[in-house]
Write a structure and sequence with these properties.
alpha+beta, Outer membrane efflux proteins (OEP), 9 helices, 6 strands, elongated
Length: 435
């Protein structure tokens, strides 16, 4: 590759991102996700549905009021024999009976099932809210992880840029040494090969960086081609401790809360099933208008209006042992729901413990890698100075250069992995937020 071509490409690569781009902060990314994400929208709508269902009317506590109209007509060939033996006969006799009015039907007692249903609807609403919180927490976690992955890749691109600058400086030095006869042509060629390798590495890293941008735009449910930059640093919270996380998880983990509410729903279903053992009492009332007409008979027309009312009661005595069977099934449902809660708590504690171990390990790793970066930078500075005066080989120089870049990448990876563990811990504890 010619010198001018290499330098031109180098300028393009180093200048990439220098154009004015939107700085997408973590706070704005979360805000956009909460507003746009489709799964969050669906979960919010599910809460609305549960809220609409959570009413005393849907639980059966209110009466049903309806307007009724009944109109029966007939055309009959009629023959009537009176008590004195007189026969009356009419072909095509028209008869009409009309009843209309307003009726009320109210179940005033059903074994307290209506109150249990209302409590179950309230619990279902709470469960929907817990599921919404879980969906929001999951999406925030996804935004965090992808966002800080971009920060990490951005840092690695900067490390590769540093390698490019050093490789270009090395190539310039090699050419100057070759021009005055202090170096062989092989030294220049090796420098060009290493520079090309660094350019290739940056192109690959840049491809991954662009793909991660598309992924974040997808999570934010916006145009995937929107270009942006992210913040430069990954801020770590080093103060997390395991016991407070466990206590918070017991109280705030949204999935655990949904499991506990599911157990409560199972208990309410048993209570509602037991309500079938008690009598059901209904009140019926209304105000009706009646009118009847007959072509043949002692009364050819009749009208009436007024209140009608009554009360009815029923109580199951035997239904083929269905009641006992349904109660046994409901009890098993409670047992299963309780087992699910215990199982989830066990898994939750295990996840917290393993993730916390990873969190602590990576915190220690950050300290080690930070020292390695300082040592590698010092070694590179010394090596570069020796290379300029020709006291070390190109292989030694390249090794020092690669060690420095590798140390930068390892430090970036350690910070990213620590941040992922921190995000997971806060998500499990139900405390994930922008702090």
């Amino acid at each position: 590759m010619k010198k001018n071509t290499i330098l031109h490409l180098l300028v393009l690569l180093l200048g990439f991102g220098a154009k004015s781009q939107e700085l997408l902060t973590l706070e704005n990314a979360v805000k956009i996700a909460l507003e746009n994400n489709y799964e969050i929208t669906i979960a919010k709508n599910e809460v609305k549905i549960a809220d609409y269902n959570n009413s005393i009317g849907n639980a059966g506590m209110l009466p049903n009021v309806s307007a009724n109209v009944v109109n029966n007509n007939s055309i009959l060939d009629t023959k009537q024999t009176q008590g004195d033996g007189t026969v009356r006969q009419l072909k095509g006799a028209k008869n009409m009976n009309l009843t209309y009015g307003v009726g009320l039907d109210w179940t005033v007692f059903d074994g307290l099932k209506m109150f249990t249903r209302k409590e179950r609807f309230e619990t279902l609403k709470q469960q929907g809210e817990a599921n919404l919180k879980r969906t929001i927490s999951t999406k925030i976690s996804d935004v965090y992880a992808t966002y800080f992955d971009l920060v990490q890749q951005q840092q690695q691109l900067q490390a590769i840029d540093t390698a490019l600058l050093i490789s270009n400086q090395r190539l310039t030095t090699a050419k100057n040494r070759y021009s005055i006869g202090k170096a062989a042509k092989l030294e220049v060629l090796n420098a060009e090969v290493d520079l090309n390798a660094d350019i290739s590495n940056r192109l690959k890293a840049l491809e991954m960086y662009q793909m991660s941008k598309i992924k974040l735009n997808e999570i934010l449910a916006r145009d995937i081609m929107i270009d942006f930059t992210v913040e430069k640093e990954i801020n770590i919270d080093p103060t997390l401790t395991l016991q407070p996380l466990k206590e918070a998880a017991e109280q705030q983990n949204p999935e655990l809360q949904a499991q506990i509410l599911n157990k409560k729903i199972a208990e309410l279903q048993l209570k509602e099933t037991k309500g079938n053992r008690y009598p059901t009492v209904r009140i019926n009332s209304g105000y009706n208008f009646t009118r009847s007409e007959a072509s043949l008979g002692f009364v050819t027309q009749s009208n009436g209006n007024g209140f009608v009312y009554g009360i009815s009661a029923s109580m199951p005595i035997f239904n083929g042992m269905s009641q006992n069977r349904n109660e046994k099934i409901a009890k098993i449902g409670i047992e299963n729901a309780s087992t699910q809660v215990s199982l989830f708590k066990q898994n939750l504690h295990a996840q917290l413990a393993s993730t916390y171990a990873s969190y602590q390990s990576n915190l220690n790793l950050i300290q080690v890698e930070d020292k390695n970066v300082a040592i590698a930078k010092q070694n590179l500075d010394i090596t570069l100075a020796k290379f300029k005066i020709g006291t070390i080989t190109t292989i030694e120089f390249r090794t020092a250069q690669e060690n420095y870049v590798t140390a930068l990448v390892r430090l970036s990876n350690a910070k990213y992995l620590t941040k992922l563990a921190e995000i997971s811990l806060k998500e499990l504890a139900g405390t994930l937020n922008l702090n």
